[in-house]
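Collaboration report, partner site 2.

Our partner group contributed sequences for two proteins of shared interest, and the home lab folded both. The records are reproduced in the order in which they were received, starting with the first partner submission.
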Amino acid sequence: MTTFFKTFSTILFTFILCSEALGSTTSPDLNTLEDLSQNTQWLRLLHYHKGFWNFTLKSQADGKGFFISPNGDHDPLAELGATYEAMSETSSKRFGKDKVHAQCSFPARYKFLKKYFPNNTWKDVSCPKLEAVLKKFNGESLTYVFSTAFPNNPGSMFGHTFVRINARSEKNKKHMELFDHGLSYAALTPEGFSGMALVIKGLFGLYPGFFSSPLYYEKIAEYTHFESRDLWEYALDINPEETDMFIKATWEIAHNGYFDYYFFDENCAFHLLSLLEIAKPEWKLTTSSFFVSPVDSILSLTKTPGAVTEVSFRPSVKTKFLTRLKGLDSEQREQLIETIDSKEKVTKTPQMTSQLLDGLDSYYKYMKQRMGGKLNDEQLEKHYQVQLLQSKFPKPQKVKEWADTRPDIGHGVSRVQLSYVSDGRSNSNSESVDLSYKFAYHDLLDSDRGFTPFSQIDFVELKFSKLHSENYYLQSLRFIEIQSLYPITFFEKRKSWRFKLEYNKPYFASCEACYQWNMDAALGLSFPTFNETTLLYSFIGADADYLDNTGRLFVGLKPEIGIISQVFGRGKIWGGINYLPYFGPHEGVMSYFVKTSFTISQKVQLRASLEGRDLEGSSSPEHLGRFDFNFYY
């Protein structure tokens, strides 16, 4: 009976549609409408997705203005029929913020219908605003751009992505990509509102998203000059017709509706991929995942056969300088520092080389960026002298040491870990098997290929443990852990810092309910050693532990020193020692650790570690050894 009424209502709907369509429009038959309503490109045009927890089809677009049918947010057939009717040039219905004809408000859907109904006699109506936008972009192809992470801004700590719309080249003129337009999607936040509040509200979709289309040189200035973030550009196999569809699909959501911005999934990476899927229906780039990061979106594209045609790199002024500095030998580095420190003019000497001048030039450009775009008078004069001398030397070879920073060659941002843990005692509760899942992103023992060295951004890690005689129980829930170790050098003196928030149960605790909240925040300094892959660091921080079962709060200042080094290319070793004297009548704790990792492939890594702690007044210290198997995806 239910099937009968569904079929009857569909036939009745189609009859009404065909009756209302005017003579200039050839009405589609029922079977054509039903088949086309399940077309992949049509479903993507309306942003229909099945939920993560269920299989109900519903559009992710917000705002009723995005749909022509009252049931359009969940009924593809109803929306298709209403759209077909509205596209007639004689239709009096008006849509969108500007109250314009459906052809102007929903140009991507109109393009789709014209493709599948080529014999229809619709006449194109005039759409001045849409035509002005299409003329501005003059789109021929698309490039997907990844900006590296910016740990100092929680909203960008996983990086950012946007699309560059490559304009058609004028005849006999070189294409100037700096004047192309970028298309970016971000959360619309109140002015001056940023930091962790952005992340927290973004977790619950409390901001609307919005699209912007600045000129590409403005994005380059923002990222590579002001924020010292590198750009990776992935040219896509998108032709002019597909580019036109991409622009029109973006127009539809920008002028008729919006997306609620979710930090985890419906973010800059996800929705740009969903628009690319509209332009290229044969690509499958999005999934119903709980977390989608900018790096995930790059991996989706590079794993799609033929999607990426070329990869290029646009380094920040900081990366250019550090790379040129790395290319100098110790004598040239000393000379560079002497030249910077000296009050004398920069003149040609027998020791002067094009590599040294190139290093000086990139140094002053970097300093200009750090000083807000303006050098002091002495620096300005020296930079001018360096540039004059450069013209008298042959140009040095271009530095090409960027390959290891490509985001698509790094490990996956999500991780599953299986561990064996032991405290060395000979009883049934001295060993456990751990299983953990980390949503994102990168820690200090991970391979640095594709990531920023000496940095850690861990976001939500669940760990479960199983003792010999028990079932699995929650071992820890780490909400966030960020560490940034900035090496102190002559050229840059920045503080290192870390922050961690975790809920955990100490290993092999005697009570079942010995859970505690732990927060650790610290500032410090890091120093390079005999090579660029080894770093010494020192921290002083505040550590707070709140015990659930007793309601007691332990707070103390914790100094720590440590060393971390990359060894044999694929391996890392990290060791440290700290002392935590709690305030009040509580015992202090001395702790140490040695951790190692060995990366087998992009997806697999092995780890081993030994940790110890010595509680003041205790007769014997506690030790904990573990072996980890990591799988990244």
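Second partner submission, folded after the first:
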Amino acid sequence: MTGMLRKIGLLAMLAALYGVLSRWSGGPLLLGEYKEVVIPALMLAVGAVALWGFRFRAMGFYGGLALLTASVSRLKVLNGQPYRWAELAGALSFASLVAAGLLLWLWFFSPERPASDVWSLGMDRKRSAADWSRRIARGAGYLTAGLLFCWLLLPWGYYSASHALLTPDLILTVFQTNPGEAASFLRDQGPLRWGTLILGILVCAGFVIHELRRLSREGREGGRKLAAALLVGVVAYSAVLVPRVPDFYALDLGLDVRKSLDTFRQYREGKAKRMAKLEELRNSGLSIAPGEGGIYVLVIGESATRDHWSLYGYGRPTTPWAEQLASAPGTVWFPRAYANYTHTVPSLSYALSAKNQYNDVGVEEAYSLLEVAKAAGYRTYWLSNQLRYGLWDTPVSAMASTADEQVWINGNVGGTTATQAYDGELVRHLEKLDLEQNSLVVVHLMGSHATYNDRCPGDRAVFTDDAGENSVDAYDNSIRYTDEVLRDIYGTVSSRKDFRALVYFSDHGEDAEGGRRHESSKFIWTMARIPMVVALSPSFLKQRPETVKALEMNRNRGWTNDLVYNLMTDLMGIQGAPLQEDRFDAASPGYGIPEDRLSTLHGKRKISEDVPRNAAFAERW
């Protein structure tokens, strides 16, 4: 009688699950074009539940996993994005296969009788090595199930806290930053809310593990023939049908993260190969053109949006020195400059290499600006107030490691967002450098990175109406302080005889008013609007008037910061630079990316969609 009730319960659960999923998909789920992958997966899952005698814990595990996997895919609808029913078919196929595999795994390593009949509760009976092996194998199964539920619950938790989709780059931020920065982010977003969600996810995963342990301790019921048939079925499905299972949100999330981490690793490992190719290029003409060379400074801002630069029309006097510089001969600033991405590592991985949104070069194959400059004959320097190490080595840190001289003034390693010095300290170190005649100096500021109050000395604050650590006043003070730092950097290098040019751009913008910072999942245009300024020396103006003319001609055109490599190799007079194309070079008369191709978020949003915040100012220029 009990067995019959269990079977009826399973049929009722499957019918309810089918009804919910069919409603979500807007049609008969099993009759769609993916029925060849959905139906076999369902049969494997039902067989695995039968292997456990149709026990409610086995049914609950499968039903819960299927419903949760499918519901995660439905988050796209809640976020206003289009939804394909194929994603639901993929989610159900995945959940059914995984449930079948885990239930089958636990069956193989569970006792044939209830655990209380096999082992006493005391220690009077020794367990064999085989017993311990089975326990370890079951533990691996429990852990896998718990981690799987954590992964599937994470998008729901993030959506509940932020009302936005969890994206791969947000997960990658954990690998690209340090625990202190992650803790700072969670604190600013509401520690109680995030703490409750994380605790809830862990409790749910713990409950799943607890129920699977109880299921296993009850002893298995099914026969070995059914188990063998299911094992063959799972293996055959994995080999033949898995490639045909359509993608779905939860799986794509994990695969995209893994792909990016693999790209990071490949970039590091490809350094020697790229340098060998550059040596070959140097033998065939990669060099500083005759009469060129000199001292070039590239300053990278952090989280600076041009919407808060008075140079670009902002109502507060946040950049008085930049405004003064802009009126000087040889200064060209770009009113329509944008970030290629709204997170530092993907943005700078493109900006400081030959990779951009408009070519087909892989990041791991793209030469970095420092590698090319060094091979051509420049001595390279990297000065930074950013943390040197995060939880994962990235292309940006790999690029920095190629510099001939490196100065890292933020000695904290992976533990805090607090800096040991303000950006002004970088000027002191810049003054001490014995720059050679041909030098490239990259200065990476902490700029306006949250927490904003930490970026400006208290005695230099100008806007003091709101004392909040991440207030608009605090953000504007960080912009104002960056303006002072740029003034001091320019004053230091422009006095050198061989100074040729200073270029400043920000990695991405920031939403200080709305508190979204620069999360791509909550994208608004202020996150992508960045300042971009080129200051040329009198000697450069005299020697290369055609380049100055081209910059002036192109300044009002759209520009994204993944084109820095092309701009800098041109300004620095590097001939034979690999992957240098005039159409990507704002210092060339041939610059010309069609307006409908200019993009941010690595091609996901078109610059033509943007309506500038300071519309009257944009119209003027």
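Feedback sent to the partner group on the second submission included the following. The mean pLDDT is 83. The chain has 23 helices and 13 strands.
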